[in-house]
Specification:
Blueprint (H helix, E strand, L loop, with lengths): L9 E5 L2 E2 L9 H4 L7 E8 L2 E8 L6 H16 L7 H7 L6 E2 L2 H16 L9 H7 L11 H8 L7 E4 L4 E4 L12 H15 L5 E5 L2 E5 L8 E6 L8 E7 L2 E7 L4 E4 L2 E4 L14 E8 L2 H14 L1 H10 L3 E7 L3 E4 L7 E3 L5 E2 L2
Parallel strand pairs: 17-19
Antiparallel strand pairs: 1-2, 1-10, 3-4, 4-8, 5-7, 6-7, 8-9, 9-12, 10-11, 11-18, 12-15, 13-14, 15-16, 16-17
Length: 353
């Protein structure tokens, strides 16, 4: 299925150089470098997005086999689009029987339900029938009939996911129900990749899964990383500002990431489970900063659906979570704890107090 490939929502600046490519080669200059000078990057397309992993303090590309092996292993469990995956088997057996799954799959679905409860149903992984109906950002996109939307919405209800912790099973109670972990799985996998990198003996890296960024440790010289927040107006390009931090995850969701156009109307991919249509509020993009990408991923979708007032209130109520809201009017709203680490760099935007 062909996807619209857009530029990354977030790109990472390291020593004023955008991280990309596998660029380190063994030559006279690298032979004389210290561990602090060494780094190596690898680009790939997985998890339905372009991604880049950069390792610092090494130029040994053999690490990537193990790292990307972890990505593939988890994607093969968690993607509804991979035949035979655990999520696909859960959907295939909807209304028929519980499916025994791995600890990883169970954990992601369990966390998804927690966020469904927290968001009062706005974050709901059973939205997959609606996502498939619209197929936004693919060659199969079409504007659905209202009756089709109504039928798909009948299948959306996270309360009909039955988890059996003792037997590690997941059961969708109605036929034709299905789940899509696309709004949370990348964050979970990013955290697992960070853990794998640490297990390999490295302590400084940047993981960028197309907008899901994990900053592992700090720069080899002891300073913090800088993350550039992409300007959501794709016709302008550039960045809105930067976040300077260590050991955090930053995940952005925006209405410009994936979309389709029909009759001069643009339909973005963030669907509201209560209306059946792409969400329509004043938020253009939201970036979440948290200790775990698992949480940041789910929250970025959740608060964008909630809108500015409710979304900001939720962020302020959560421990260790911050957010940057960008509105369609080029206004930026910051949660209290991020004001000291965010720097505005674009004259097209204004920070609102």
């Amino acid at each position: 299925m062909k996807k619209n490939i857009l530029k990354y929502v977030i790109f990472v600046i390291m020593l004023s150089i955008v991280v990309s490519g596998c660029s380190v080669k063994v030559n006279e200059s690298t032979e004389n470098k210290t561990d602090q000078d060494l780094k190596i990057s690898k680009n790939s397309f997985s998890l339905n997005t372009f991604n880049t992993i950069t390792l610092y303090g090494t130029d040994d590309d053999s690490y990537f086999e193990s790292i990307y092996g972890e990505v593939t292993r988890l994607e093969n469990k968690l993607s509804v689009h991979i035949s035979g995956s655990e999520v696909a088997m859960i959907c295939d057996n909807a209304g028929l029987r519980p499916v025994k799954v791995s600890q990883e799959t169970f954990e992601v679905i369990e966390k998804s339900i927690e966020y469904a409860v927290l968001s009062e149903g706005l974050f709901d992984i059973t939205i997959e029938p609606l996502v498939s109906l619209w197929s936004i950002g693919t060659d199969n996109f079409r504007l659905p009939e209202q009756s089709e939307i109504n039928d798909a919405m009948e299948l959306i209800d996270f309360k009909k996911i039955v988890l059996d912790d003792e037997n590690s099973t997941v059961y969708l109670t109605e036929k034709n129900m299905s789940i899509d972990l696309g709004a949370i799985a990348k964050g979970y996998i990013a955290d697992k990749v960070a853990k794998k990198i640490i297990e390999l003996g490295l302590d400084s890296a940047i993981i960028n899964f197309g907008g899901n960024v994990v900053l592992l440790g700090e720069k080899p010289d002891g300073s913090a990383f800088q993350v550039g927040i992409q300007e959501p107006d794709e016709t302008r390009g550039g960045i809105v500002g930067t976040v300077t931090a260590r050991n955090i995850s930053l995940v952005t969701s925006g209405d410009y990431e994936r979309y389709s156009v029909q009759d001069n109307t643009r339909y973005h991919h963030i669907l509201d489970p209560f209306t059946g249509y792409p969400t329509d509020n004043n938020i253009k993009a939201v970036s979440i900063i948290a200790n775990q990408s698992f949480d940041a991923d789910a929250l970025s979708t959740t608060v964008l659906l909630q809108g500015l007032e409710k979304g900001l209130a939720m962020i302020e109520s959560l421990e260790g979570v911050e957010a940057i809201f960008i509105t369609k009017e080029h206004e930026i709203y910051l949660s209290e704890g991020i004001k000291d680490i965010f720097k505005l760099t674009s004259g097209e935007y204004i920070i609102m107090e």
